[in-house]
Design brief:
Largest sheet: none
Number of helices: 8
Number of strands: 0
Strand content: under 5%
Number of domains: 2
Shape: elongated
Radius of gyration: 19 Å
Distance between the termini: 54 Å
Helix content: over 70%
Structural class: mainly alpha
């Protein structure tokens, strides 16, 4: 049974109905519609914490979806799942793939920075200060890019950059 037929909450049902209407109205190919259905089902599964099911749907969507912009969001969501499962290296790979297709993804830049910052903290706690500094510098680099794209977002990152002397304004 497709996920769209087993959504129990009102918002998911509403989204599913609207998405189905949009798919019927928009002039899209059968493949584009199929890819979107997999993507939609992946998002629904991901929102319910069903990460294995979400990944299956995202991977199926990637097999079909050709549009680089749409593929970037699929890759980004796969990165989110790996990051939430603590698989930071895999998450970084998917965030970078998403950015290769869509340079305008400040959320991917932010998430990369968060991972590098987290790794920097871990290295610092292990008294690996050279590694820690390098990781913090990488985090700063990605946060600066994210802030450039979305200046009103990432306030905590902006504060960290200021307090660590990585930006001055």
């Amino acid at each position: 049974m497709p996920r769209s037929q087993k959504n129990d909450n009102f918002i998911d049902k509403t989204f599913t109905v609207l998405a189905d209407l949009v798919l019927k109205v928009l002039p899209t190919t059968k493949e584009e519609k199929e890819a979107f259905c997999y993507y939609r089902d992946g998002m629904s599964a991901q929102s319910e914490g069903e990460y294995a099911e979400a990944l299956e749907n995202y991977y199926e969507a990637l097999k079909i979806e050709e549009d680089p912009y749409d593929r970037s969001y699929i890759l980004y969501n796969i990165g989110l799942i790996y990051a939430s499962n603590g698989e930071h290296i895999k998450a970084l790979e998917y965030y970078h793939q998403a950015l290769e297709l869509n340079k305008q993804l400040p959320q991917a830049l932010n998430n990369i920075a968060v991972i590098y910052h987290y790794q920097g903290i871990k290295a610092s706690k292990q008294d690996k200060f050279d590694i820690s500094k390098s990781l913090f510098d990488k985090a700063a680099e990605y946060w600066l890019q994210a802030i450039y794209l979305a200046p009103n977002n990432y306030i905590e990152a902006q504060n960290w950059l200021k307090t660590t002397g990585r930006i001055t304004n």
